[in-house]
């Protein structure tokens, strides 16, 4: 298998110093050029500034990359036709020597193969609104149930059906842990009005809980929901009508399957005149900081 671990990541893993994995679908399908490249660079810088080594994960011409060079990152950010790789797509992409960006699910699989326990992103996939008929439920949820990686996100986006996403996570036995508050955050907004199933305030305890699951013989990872920083928040009452409009347009245009999330994200970006993107970037940076602290916890625990 063509599995290429960047030398910085390899030496950090070797020495047991903190490493944080990063996904790449957020770069190719979640944000427009050039903000996507700037975000990807800034998030790596935040991780380094917080004492950890960043490992952005992608498949480039069939080679699995754990950690990208700056040139690779820049090229990928300008490859809008990169494949969107979830669990189902990874192996075929490698065999066909294609280029693809990894979703939360695929990033978890590859991070685990490389020996990385924690990963930072913006939002996870979940149960889409209308899933009762479309059956559109992201593979990210199943992955959290089976692959032992702790994922730091800003909660599930309000484009999803958040109560049903929580129900599925509960059924799958995935701990949903909000960092530092009782209310589950809702991506662009700090609060959702829904109580978080679990709460933790100490990154080292989050690392302990991850290891404890393994000791107990429980497969899977943890979802850490980190509220967006206050100064970057868009209140729910502002974002809700915009989401409603984007959803309506998606339905009218017959957008389906893998295209749904990217379509909604780019419409919401247009409808908020870029404010949603600024918030998205701020919350990814904040998640990277918390993930670096959890990674430091893992290194301390050994
Ligand atoms: N949610 C976001 N931004 C994103 C995604 C989700 O706020 O970029 C991406 C992530 O890579 C996530 C994927 O894993 O979309 C989920 O896609 P789907 O719903 O098709 O599984
Ligand atoms: Mn889907």
Properties at a glance:
single chain, 302 residues, alpha/beta, Indigoidine synthase fold, eleven-stranded mixed beta sheet, 13 helices, 48% helix, 14% strand, binds pseudouridine-5'-monophosphate
Q: Give the count of helical stretches.
A: 13
Derived from helix and strand composition plus strand pairing, the structural class reads: alpha/beta
Which fold name corresponds to the CATH topology? Indigoidine synthase fold
Helix share of residues?
40-55%
Give average pLDDT, whole number: 96
CATH homology group:
Indigoidine synthase domain
Low-pLDDT stretches are none
Short précis:
With 302 residues, the chain is α/β, with parallel strands linked by helices. The chain has helices at residues 7-15, 25-28, 35-49, 70-77, 90-95, 104-114, 131-134, 139-146, 162-172, 203-215, 236-252, 260-271, 275-301, and strands spanning 3-5, 19-22, 53-60, 63-66, 83-85, 100-102, 118-120, 150-153, 176-179, 198-200, 222-225.
Topology:
Elements: E1 3-5, H1 7-15, E2 19-22, H2 25-28, H3 35-49, E3 53-60, E4 63-66, H4 70-77, E5 83-85, H5 90-95, E6 100-102, H6 104-114, E7 118-120, H7 131-134, H8 139-146, E8 150-153, H9 162-172, E9 176-179, E10 198-200, H10 203-215, E11 222-225, H11 236-252, H12 260-271, H13 275-301
Parallel strand pairs: 1-4, 2-3, 2-7, 5-6, 7-8, 8-11, 9-10, 9-11
Antiparallel strand pairs: 3-4, 3-6
Helix pairs in contact: 3-4, 3-13, 6-8, 8-9, 10-13, 11-12
The structure holds pseudouridine-5'-monophosphate (PSU) and manganese (II) ion.
Pseudouridine-5'-monophosphate is lined by residues 23, 25-26, 29-30, 86, 103-104, 122-125, 138-140, 157, 258, 261, 265.
């Amino acid at each position: 298998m063509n599995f290429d671990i960047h030398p910085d990541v390899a030496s950090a893993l070797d020495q047991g110093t903190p490493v944080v994995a990063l996904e790449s679908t957020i770069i190719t399908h979640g944000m427009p050029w050039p903000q996507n490249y700037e975000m990807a660079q800034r998030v790596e810088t935040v991780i380094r500034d917080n004492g950890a080594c960043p490992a952005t994960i992608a498949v480039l011409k069939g080679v699995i990359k754990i950690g990208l060079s700056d040139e690779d990152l820049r090229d990928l950010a300008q490859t809008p036709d990169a494949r969107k790789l979830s669990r189902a797509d990874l192996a075929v992409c490698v065999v066909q020597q294609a280029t693809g960006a990894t979703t939360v699910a695929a990033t978890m699989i590859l991070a685990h193969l490389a020996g990385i326990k924690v990963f930072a992103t913006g939002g996870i996939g979940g149960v889409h609104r209308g899933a009762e008929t479309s059956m559109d439920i992201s593979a990210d949820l199943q992955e959290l149930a089976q692959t032992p990686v702790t994922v730091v996100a800003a909660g599930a986006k309000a484009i999803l059906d958040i109560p049903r996403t929580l129900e599925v996570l509960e059924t799958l036995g995935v701990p949903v842990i909000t960092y530092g508050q009782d209310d589950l955050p809702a991506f662009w907004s700090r609060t959702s009005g829904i109580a978080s199933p679990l709460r933790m305030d100490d990154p080292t305890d989050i690392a302990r809980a991850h290891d404890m699951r393994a000791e107990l013989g429980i497969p899977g990872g943890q979802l850490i929901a980190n509220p967006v920083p206050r100064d970057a928040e868009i209140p729910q009452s502002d974002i809700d009508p915009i989401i409603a409009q984007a959803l309506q347009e998606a339905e009218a245009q017959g957008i389906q399957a893998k295209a749904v999330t990217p379509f909604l994200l780019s419409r919401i970006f247009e409808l908020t005149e870029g404010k949603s993107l600024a918030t998205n970037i701020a919350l990814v940076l904040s998640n990277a900081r918390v993930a670096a602290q959890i990674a430091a916890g893992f290194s301390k625990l050994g």
